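thread: overnight batch results

M.L. [08:02]
morning all. the overnight job finished for the chain we discussed friday. pasting input first so we're all looking at the same thing
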Amino acid sequence: MSNEIANLEQELNQMIAAGQAMEAFERFYADDVVMQENTEPPREGKDACRTYEQEFFGNVAEFHEGSFHGGAAQGDRSYSEWVFDVTFKDGTRMRNHQVAARTWRDGKVVRERFYYGS
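M.L. [08:03]
and the structure it wrote out:
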Protein backbone atom coordinates (compact mmCIF):
# COMPACT_ATOMS: atom_id res chain seq x y z
CA MET A 1 0.00 0.00 0.00
CA SER A 2 2.88 2.39 0.69
CA ASN A 3 3.72 2.68 -3.00
CA GLU A 4 0.13 3.60 -3.88
CA ILE A 5 -0.02 6.12 -1.03
CA ALA A 6 3.37 7.54 -2.05
CA ASN A 7 2.05 8.11 -5.58
CA LEU A 8 -1.15 9.76 -4.32
CA GLU A 9 0.87 11.93 -1.92
CA GLN A 10 3.13 13.00 -4.78
CA GLU A 11 0.16 13.95 -6.98
CA LEU A 12 -1.44 15.88 -4.13
CA ASN A 13 1.76 17.77 -3.33
CA GLN A 14 2.36 18.61 -7.00
CA MET A 15 -1.09 20.17 -7.22
CA ILE A 16 -0.55 22.19 -4.04
CA ALA A 17 2.84 23.40 -5.30
CA ALA A 18 1.20 24.41 -8.60
CA GLY A 19 -1.29 26.64 -6.77
CA GLN A 20 -4.17 24.18 -7.09
CA ALA A 21 -4.77 23.52 -3.39
CA MET A 22 -8.57 23.70 -3.59
CA GLU A 23 -8.69 21.48 -6.66
CA ALA A 24 -6.47 18.99 -4.82
CA PHE A 25 -8.76 19.20 -1.80
CA GLU A 26 -11.80 18.27 -3.91
CA ARG A 27 -9.97 15.41 -5.60
CA PHE A 28 -8.05 13.84 -2.72
CA TYR A 29 -10.05 14.42 0.49
CA ALA A 30 -12.80 12.12 1.76
CA ASP A 31 -16.26 13.38 2.69
CA ASP A 32 -15.60 12.39 6.33
CA VAL A 33 -12.12 13.97 6.51
CA VAL A 34 -10.87 15.38 9.83
CA MET A 35 -8.30 18.18 9.65
CA GLN A 36 -6.40 19.75 12.53
CA GLU A 37 -3.96 22.62 13.02
CA ASN A 38 -1.37 21.70 15.69
CA THR A 39 -3.29 21.35 18.97
CA GLU A 40 -6.38 23.28 17.84
CA PRO A 41 -9.72 21.44 17.87
CA PRO A 42 -10.17 19.34 14.73
CA ARG A 43 -12.54 20.28 11.92
CA GLU A 44 -14.77 17.38 10.93
CA GLY A 45 -16.29 16.72 7.54
CA LYS A 46 -15.40 17.93 4.08
CA ASP A 47 -17.83 20.86 4.14
CA ALA A 48 -16.35 22.32 7.36
CA CYS A 49 -12.81 21.75 6.13
CA ARG A 50 -13.59 23.28 2.73
CA THR A 51 -15.01 26.40 4.38
CA TYR A 52 -11.84 26.79 6.50
CA GLU A 53 -9.56 26.35 3.47
CA GLN A 54 -11.58 28.80 1.35
CA GLU A 55 -11.44 31.40 4.13
CA PHE A 56 -7.69 30.91 4.56
CA PHE A 57 -6.90 31.25 0.85
CA GLY A 58 -9.43 34.07 0.52
CA ASN A 59 -7.48 36.08 3.10
CA VAL A 60 -4.13 35.70 1.33
CA ALA A 61 -3.02 38.81 -0.55
CA GLU A 62 0.30 37.42 -1.79
CA PHE A 63 2.22 34.13 -1.75
CA HIS A 64 5.94 34.82 -1.49
CA GLU A 65 6.97 31.18 -1.22
CA GLY A 66 5.35 27.81 -1.10
CA SER A 67 7.97 25.13 -1.32
CA PHE A 68 7.91 21.39 -0.78
CA HIS A 69 10.92 20.03 1.12
CA GLY A 70 10.30 16.28 1.05
CA GLY A 71 8.02 13.57 2.23
CA ALA A 72 7.56 9.91 3.05
CA ALA A 73 4.86 7.25 3.02
CA GLN A 74 4.44 4.04 4.98
CA GLY A 75 1.34 1.91 5.20
CA ASP A 76 -1.71 4.18 5.10
CA ARG A 77 0.22 7.28 6.28
CA SER A 78 2.15 9.98 4.49
CA TYR A 79 4.12 13.02 5.57
CA SER A 80 5.22 16.11 3.71
CA GLU A 81 7.31 19.08 4.78
CA TRP A 82 6.53 22.58 3.50
CA VAL A 83 7.58 26.19 3.89
CA PHE A 84 4.93 28.84 3.23
CA ASP A 85 5.51 32.57 3.25
CA VAL A 86 2.37 34.64 2.75
CA THR A 87 1.04 38.13 3.30
CA PHE A 88 -2.59 38.37 4.31
CA LYS A 89 -5.01 41.07 3.21
CA ASP A 90 -4.67 42.76 6.62
CA GLY A 91 -0.92 43.24 5.94
CA THR A 92 0.26 40.50 8.30
CA ARG A 93 3.09 38.40 6.88
CA MET A 94 3.55 34.81 8.03
CA ARG A 95 6.36 32.39 7.31
CA ASN A 96 5.38 28.88 8.31
CA HIS A 97 7.52 25.73 8.28
CA GLN A 98 5.13 22.81 8.69
CA VAL A 99 4.70 19.08 8.36
CA ALA A 100 1.42 17.67 7.08
CA ALA A 101 0.68 14.18 8.44
CA ARG A 102 -2.00 12.38 6.44
CA THR A 103 -3.91 9.13 6.85
CA TRP A 104 -5.39 7.62 3.69
CA ARG A 105 -8.31 5.26 3.05
CA ASP A 106 -9.46 4.09 -0.39
CA GLY A 107 -7.32 6.70 -2.17
CA LYS A 108 -8.59 9.63 -0.10
CA VAL A 109 -7.22 11.59 2.85
CA VAL A 110 -9.36 10.84 5.90
CA ARG A 111 -7.21 12.64 8.48
CA GLU A 112 -4.71 15.47 8.13
CA ARG A 113 -2.85 17.23 10.91
CA PHE A 114 -0.45 20.12 10.46
CA TYR A 115 2.48 20.44 12.84
CA TYR A 116 4.35 23.73 13.03
CA GLY A 117 6.04 26.09 15.47
CA SER A 118 5.10 29.65 16.21
